UniProtKB/TrEMBL annotation:
One Pfam entry name: DNA_ligase_A_M
NCBIfam families: LigD_PE_dom, ligD_pol, NHEJ_ligase_lig, PRK09632.1
One example GO MF annotation: DNA ligase (ATP) activity
Organism of this sequence: Microbacterium helvum
Superkingdom to which the source organism belongs: Bacteria
Biased composition regions of type Basic and acidic residues, renumbered to the chain: 510-520
Protein name according to UniProt: DNA ligase (ATP)
Domain called ATP-dependent DNA ligase family profile: residue spans: 647-767
SUPFAM superfamilies reported for this sequence: DNA ligase/mRNA capping enzyme, catalytic domain, Nucleic acid-binding proteins
Class of enzymatic activity (EC top level): ligase
Length: 860
C-alpha cells in the first residue's frame, strides 16, 4: 500500500508510518491507523503507568486473525535492530544474553511500537533504579482470573473482598478489567519493598481470601482446581514476570483494552470489558481512575521531604517525568556520586546541571551550558531538588506543564567532591566515554539569594585538582535531537601534548609560531591563492581509507599505540574546503567545485580563523534524530539551478563535518602527524558556525564501534595518530570499518551478465513480501563466488517465467530482466534501506534453503 505511507513528525521525532489501512482486527475491521491513533490519544494516561519500566511486547505483524485462522504472534523483549535511535532502551541480562528493552516515556515511542504491530504492552511491577539495575517493587498486582463456569461478576466480588483487606492495611486498590477474561487489582507499595517481599505479600493475601471464600476462590495454579472458581494469581509480582499494562490494547478478536475502572462500575451486574473506542470516549469525562498510582509519591512524607517542591509542581497523570519511589530521597551508596547534564528545550533552551548530594539531585538551570574555557563564567540558577530517578530521564514534557519541552541527556557520569558549602561547590566531573564533557574540574559559586532561584556562577577551573592546566572543552550547543553528533572532540580523548599545541587565534591575523621544519614548507601557497582567486586549487586530492574488518582495525590500533584514534564514519560525501579568510569554497573528491550547491556553508562567514586554510571533511544531511542520511543528501548533490538549491537548502540543510586540515596560513601541514594536525584544526574551527562541526575522536575501538552501531551510523575509521596526510592516495594508516545488516530476500529475476559473467548473470533482482505482494527491494551483483554463480544459474534456469512477480520495479531495472518464479530465498548484507524500500550496497551472502518465501519479512 504505497499510497498508505506517511512521514510524520511527532514531538520533534520523524517517523515513517506504513500500511495504515492494514486491518489488524478482522472481525471489527480495525486498522493499523486506528491502533496508532488510539495509542497517540491515550498516551497521557498510559505513560505514567509504564514509564521507567522495561516493556515486553506481543506483536501481531499480520493482525490478530480470526478464530478459525489466528494471526501469528510472538513475544518481543529485545528492541528491533531497525528501531529509531531515539527510542530509549535499557539492558537486562538473560541466560541467552543481554536484551535491550524499550522504555516508553513519550508519544513517539508509543507510535513506533504501534507501527510495528506491538498491540500488547506488558511491564513488571518495578522500575529501573538510577544505576540501571532493577529497582524495588513499587506496586502490587493481583490477577483475578475466572475459571470455567464463572465470569467478570464473580471476579468483581473477589475484588471487593480483596479491597476490604487492603484498605485495612492502609493500601488503596484500583481495579482494571483486563480486556481478556478477568480483573487486575493494583495497589501502591510503601518504599523499599523487594519483589520477593511483594510476591510473599500477594501470596498471603490470596491464601487469606481463599480461606474465607473456599467455594469461589483458589490460589493454586493447578488447572484441575479452577472449575467454577476465581484464581487469584499472585505470581505476577515476581521480578521476572510482567502484566498487561493499564490502557494497553489486547490481541483478542475484538480490540479490547486493559481498562482502569471505578469501584462503582464493578458493582454493575452487566460489567463487561471495554474496547478502545469506549475507552477513548471516557477520556475527557472520567480521566484516569487510577491516576494516583501512576508514579505515586509514596506517602505523607512527600509534603515535607526534600523532594516536596518537585512533587508539588508535577501531576503524575500529566507528565512522564519520574515521581520518586521514596519522597525522602534515595539512600546514598558507597560509590562516587553521580551527575547528569540534560539539554532542555523548554520555553527557552537551557542545560539542567544536576549533582547527586544527600540522596537527591541538587539542580541548577544553566542557560549557556558548561563553559568551555576558564576565561568565562556562565550563570546558573538553582532549581528544586530532583529525585535520583531523574538521572536517566529523557522525554517530552507536555506543553502547558511545568518545564514543558523536550529533555535529553547531554552527558552523565560520576564526580569527585572537593568542597560543598552553602555558597561554594568544587568538584571534578568525568563524563561517559566519548561524551562531550570529558574530565573537568568545575566550581559553583553563589552570588545572590538562597535556595531555589538563587543565582550562581558556573566556572571552569584553570587547573585540575593536581595543579595542571586544564584544556578547553566543548562549547555547549543545541542539537537537532538528543543523539545528534556534537561539536568538538571529547576532552577524555585528548592527547597529553597540549602544552605544545600550536596557538591559532580566531581573533588575530598574526600567524602561529612555526613548530617544526615542516611547518614552514611553503609549497602549498598555490592552494590558498587558488581559493582566493576562484580557480580550482591544485593538490586538493583527499587521502583515502582502506577497508578493514573490526579485528584487523583493532590489531592495527594496538600496533599504533595506546590510546587508539577512532572517528565516526559519516554517510555523506567527501569535500575539501578552501578558506581564504572570508569565504569557504568546496571541492568534491573529483576536483569539481561544488561551492554553489551548499550556500548555507559558502555564502556566509563560516567564522574559521582569519588565516587561509584548507580542511578535509564530509558533507552530511541529518535525519531529525541526528543520524546522517545519504538518501537525504541526494536531494542536494546534483542540483544546479539557484532556485532549486535555495529551496532544498531550507528543506534539507547540510553540515560539514571536519576531520583534518591540509594547510594553514600558507604552511603545508601534510607531513605533520595526524594528532598535531588535529590540534590545529580544533583551534581553526573553535569559533566556527554551527554547521561546521569537528566531531569527537574516540580512544577505544570497541567503544567507538558500539557507539556507531547504537547511533546507526555507517561505521568507524581507525587512524594512525602519527600518520601524515597522503594526498590522493589510499593508505592503510586509515582503516574504515563498516557496519552491515542482513536481510532475507526472495529472488525474482536476473539481469544478463557481461564480460566475464556473460555465461551467468550480472545481478539478481530481489523482492520482500509486502502488503501488496512481492515488493521490489533492489539488485545485488557482488559477493558471488564462481561456484555460487554456477549453482544459482542451475537452480534458477528451471524457474524461468514470462511473468514479472515484483511490485514497484523501475522500468530501467525491468527492461532486460529475465523473470523467475519467486521460490528461492537468499540472504544479503547491506548498509541500509532507502526511504523507498531499496537495499543500499547489498552483498550476497548465500542461499537460505531453510526458509520459504512466505517467511521472509523486512528486518526493521
Amino acid at each position: 500500500m504505497a499510497g498508505d505511507e506517511q512521514l510524520v513528525r511527532i514531538d520533534g521525532r520523524r517517523l515513517r508510518l506504513t500500511n495504515l489501512g492494514k486491518v489488524l482486527y478482522p472481525e471489527t475491521g480495525t486498522t493499523k491507523g486506528e491502533v496508532i491513533d488510539y495509542y497517540t490519544r491515550i498516551a497521557p494516561l498510559l505513560i505514567p503507568h509504564v514509564v521507567g519500566r522495561p516493556v515486553t511486547r506481543k506483536r501481531w505483524p499480520d493482525g490478530v486473525g480470526t478464530e478459525d485462522d489466528p494471526g501469528m504472534v510472538f513475544f518481543a523483549k529485545d528492541l528491533e535492530r531497525g528501531a529509531p535511535s531515539w527510542v530509549r532502551r535499557m539492558p537486562i541480562p538473560h541466560s541467552t544474553g543481554t536484551k535491550e528493552y524499550p522504555l516508553v516515556g513519550d508519544v513517539p515511542t508509543l507510535v513506533y511500537l504501534a507501527q510495528v504491530a506491538s498491540l500488547e504492552l506488558h511491564v513488571p511491577q518495578w522500575r529501573f533504579a538510577p544505576d540501571g539495575g532493577r529497582g524495588p517493587a513499587d506496586r502490587l498486582v493481583l490477577d483475578l482470573d475466572p475459571g470455567p463456569g464463572v465470569g467478570l461478576a464473580e471476579c468483581a466480588a473477589v475484588a471487593g473482598w480483596a479491597r476490604t483487606i487492603l484498605l485495612g492495611m492502609g493500601l488503596e486498590p484500583y481495579p482494571v478489567t483486563s480486556g481478556s477474561k478477568g480483573i487486575h487489582l493494583y495497589t501502591a507499595l510503601p518504599p523499599g519493598q523487594s519483589t520477593e517481599q511483594a510476591s510473599a505479600l500477594a501470596n498471603e493475601l490470596a491464601r487469606a481470601i481463599e480461606a474465607d471464600h473456599p467455594d469461589l476462590v483458589v490460589s493454586s495454579m493447578k488447572k484441575t482446581e479452577r472449575h467454577g472458581k476465581v484464581l487469584i494469581d499472585w505470581s505476577q509480582n515476581n521480578g521476572s514476570k510482567t502484566t498487561i499494562a493499564p490502557y494497553s490494547l489486547r490481541g483478542r478478536l475484538h480490540p479490547t483494552v486493559a481498562a482502569p475502572r471505578t469501584w462503582e462500575e464493578l458493582d454493575d451486574p452487566d460489567l463487561r470489558h471495554l474496547d478502545f473506542t469506549e475507552v477513548l470516549e471516557r477520556l475527557d469525562d472520567l480521566g484516569d481512575p487510577m491516576a494516583p498510582l501512576g508514579f505515586h509519591a509514596g506517602g505523607r512524607e512527600a509534603e515535607s521531604g526534600p523532594l516536596s517542591a518537585y512533587i508539588a509542581k508535577r501531576s503524575a497523570d500529566h507528565t512522564p517525568e519520574p515521581v520518586p519511589a521514596n519522597p525522602l530521597g534515595a539512600t546514598p551508596s558507597d560509590e562516587k556520586p553521580r551527575f547528569v547534564i540534560q539539554e532542555h528545550h523548554a520555553t527557552r533552551l537551557h542545560w539542567d546541571f544536576r549533582l547527586e548530594h544527600g540522596g537527591v539531585l541538587v539542580s541548577w538551570a544553566v542557560p549557556r551550558g558548561v563553559p568551555h574555557s576558564y576565561r568565562r563564567n556562565n550563570l546558573a540558577v538553582m532549581t528544586e531538588d530532583h529525585p535520583m530517578e531523574y538521572a536517566t530521564f529523557e522525554g517530552t514534557i507536555p506543553a502547558g506543564e511545568y518545564g514543558g519541552g523536550t529533555v535529553t541527556i547531554w552527558d552523565e557520569g560520576r564526580y569527585e567532591l572537593e568542597k560543598w558549602r552553602d555558597d561554594e561547590i568544587i568538584a571534578t566531573l568525568e563524563g561517559r566515554p566519548g561524551g562531550p564533557l570529558g574530565r573537568v574540574r568545575l566550581a559553583l559559586i553563589r552570588t545572590e539569594g538562597e535556595g531555589e532561584k538563587s543565582s550562581w556562577l558556573l566556572h571552569r577551573m584553570k587547573t585540575d585538582a593536581d595543579g595542571r592546566l586544564q584544556p578547553d572543552g566543548v562549547v555547549a550547543e543545541p542539537s537537532a535531537q538528543a543523539d545528534e553528533p556534537r561539536r568538538g572532540r571529547p576532552v577524555a580523548a585528548a592527547r597529553d601534548d597540549r602544552a605544545e599545541r600550536p596557538q591559532v587565534s580566531s581573533g588575530s591575523h598574526e600567524a602561529p609560531e612555526p613548530r617544526t621544519e615542516t611547518r614552514v614548507n611553503r609549497k602549498f601557497n598555490a592552494v590558498s591563492e587558488g581559493a582566493s582567486s576562484g580557480a580550482p586549487p591544485a593538490g586538493l586530492r583527499p587521502m583515502l581509507a582502506t577497508s578493514a574488518t573490526s579485528a584487523t582495525a583493532k590489531q592495527a590500533a594496538q600496533r599504533w599505540g595506546d590510546p587508539a584514534w577512532v572517528e565516526m564514519k559519516w554517510d555523506g560525501i567527501r569535500a575539501v574546503g578552501a578558506w581564504d579568510g572570508e569565504r569557504l569554497r568546496l571541492y568534491a573528491r573529483s576536483g569539481n567545485e561544488i561551492t554553489h550547491r551548499y550556500p548555507e556553508l559558502t555564502d556566509v562567514d563560516a567564522r574559521l580563523a582569519p588565516q587561509p586554510c584548507v580542511v578535509d571533511g564530509e558533507l552530511v544531511a541529518l535525519e531529525p534524530d541526528g543520524r546522517p542520511s545519504f538518501p537525504l543528501l541526494q536531494t542536494r548533490m546534483n542540483l544546479e539551478r539557484a532556485g532549486d538549491i535555495a529551496r532544498e537548502a531550507r528543506r534539507t540543510p547540510v553540515r560539514y563535518y571536519l576531520f583534518d586540515i591540509l594547510s594553514h596560513d600558507g604552511d603545508d601541514l601534510a607531513d605533520l602527524p595526524l594528532s598535531e594536525r588535529r590540534d590545529v584544526l580544533e583551534a581553526v574551527a573553535a569559533a566556527s558556525i554551527d554547521s561546521l562541526v569537528v566531531p569527537p575522536v574516540f580512544d577505544d575501538v570497541d567503544a567507538a564501534l558500539e557507539t556507531s552501531a547504537r547511533l546507526r551510523l555507517e561505521g568507524v575509521v581507525v587512524k594512525d595518530p602519527t600518520s601524515p596526510y597522503l594526498r590522493g592516495r589510499r593508505s592503510e594508516a586509515w582503516l574504515k570499518v563498516k557496519h552491515t545488516s542482513t536481510q532475507e530476500v526472495v529472488i525474482a529475476g536476473i539481469r544478463p551478465g557481461k564480460g566475464a559473467r556473460s555465461g551467468t548473470f550480472g545481478s539478481l533482482l530481489l523482492g520482500i513480501p509486502g502488503a501488496d505482494g512481492l515488493q521490489y527491494a533492489g539488485r545485488v551483483g557482488s559477493g558471488f563466488s564462481e561456484s555460487m554463480l554456477s549453482t544459482l544459474m542451475r537452480r534458477l534456469t528451471p524457474l524461468r517465467s514470462d511473468e514479472n512477480p515484483l511490485v514497484g520495479v523501475p522500468p530501467a531495472d525491468a527492461r532486460d530482466a529475465l523473470w523467475v518464479r519467486p521460490e528461492l530465498v537468499g540472504e544479503v548484507e547491506y548498509g541500509e534501506f532507502t526511504p523507498g524500500g531499496i537495499l543500499r550496497h547489498p552483498r550476497w551472502r548465500g542461499l537460505r534453503p531453510d526458509k520459504s518465501p512466505a517467511e521472509v519479512r523486512r528486518e526493521d
